Amino acid sequence: MDISHIKELEFIRHLNEQQIILLYNTSETLKFNAGDKVITAGDQDPYEYYLLAGELVLKEAGNTLNAVKSIHANSHDGLKCITRTKPRAYDVYAQTNAALLRVELEHLKSLLRDAPGDNYEVRKVLREDQPEEKQLFFDIYTDLRNNKLSLPSLPDVALRIRQLIAEGTNNAKTIAQAINSDAAIATKLIKAANSPLFRGTKEFESTSQAIVRLGMTTTQQLVTSFTLREVFKAKNPAIKKRMDILWAHGIEIAAISSILAKHIPGLNPEQGLLAGLLHEIGAVPVLMYAEQYEGIANDPVQLEHAISGLSSEIGGVILKRWSFSDEIITVTQYARQWDREHEGPPDYCDLVIVAQLHAAMGKQPTEDDKTALPSLEQCPAFHKLSNHGKLTPEKSLTILAEAKEQIEETKQLLGT
């Protein structure tokens, strides 16, 4: 049998020339006469079988009369492995004289791990004997390593505003034209400009007037915040529910971060708002991938374990792709690191850490948080904020109590 005959076979086609030669010469070619049994239902042998020549028939175990399926060499099905499931689902007979290539599965997998390129079909066979949770980790880390991770995209209007401002555009009418392409975002921006959050004394009706009041930087931050809701979407009901919880939590942390930032020199409330919304953005791709795994999607424990294990690293990858600043990228990477310490003044990661501790007060802790959440006095981030902004636990709670209406207004602005 010429080696060229096996270059199009399932899985083998992903190997390079040298790997194919090695596999071919370490595998066995089996020949059968018409009527011979090739594979027995229930077998758990460590091989993959490929049809090189002839015709096979697959039959239910013990049924020697009726064929479930026929396979001809070089047909679409003939390029695939024969009855891949273990234990074997069917009895397989040679319908005509036939030749099969018997490949040791573990040897094939070892070659596929070093195969050039990347392919979902290859990844599937490499991880198929692993539990679903490990399969999910395998898929995400493989895509991450190969720079092929499926990431959410920042909505177009947010990208356009960021681009215009990055190019030096400071004309309110030009920015307003871009924002007005999304009526819902334009309405929210005007509502924000007229809200007590920005202490407006005159009510504006146009987007350009709102931009003048807010300024370019705040406008950009708010537009990004308003559009982020579109990122937290899913079709699977269980995943959609978790996305909604994730978004609601982000709104709460964003609102608290914005209020606290007003009392910390050097921190901007709108940047704090954005940091709060983005602090768990890395969970979005994890949930997107989890939609492919029914067992994980419908198992809250497995789902939370996947999020906690992967979201911090992935969050940084997303925000780098979206061209966010290092200070916001740091938030996604370390916002759940309660003992985080660093040199210099407080940053937005400190702010979001403290906002999360405030949000957790008076709530029933989750299983993950029962032993993980420190008190404010035990948290280095709070000490960083208190040293810089003269906060105490009592003062910070007073600030939040007095700002309750502003927090609710912020939630309303972002919530729909």
Helix share bin:
40-55%
CATH topology of the largest domain: Hypothetical protein af1432
Mean pLDDT: 85
CATH class of the largest domain: Mainly Alpha
Report Rg: 29 Å
Which structural class do the helices and strands define? alpha+beta
Task: Specify the overall morphology.
Answer: elongated
Number of domains: 2
CATH superfamily of the largest domain: Hypothetical protein af1432
What do you see in this structure?
The chain is of the alpha+beta class and 416 residues long. It has two domains: 124 residues, Jelly Rolls; 260 residues, Hypothetical protein af1432. Helix content is 51%, strand content 8%. The strands form two sheets. A four-stranded antiparallel β-sheet has the order 2-6-4-5, with no helix packed on it. A three-stranded antiparallel β-sheet has the order 1-7-3. Helix 6 packs across helix 8. It is elongated, with a radius of gyration of 29 Å. The model has no long low-confidence stretch (mean pLDDT 85).
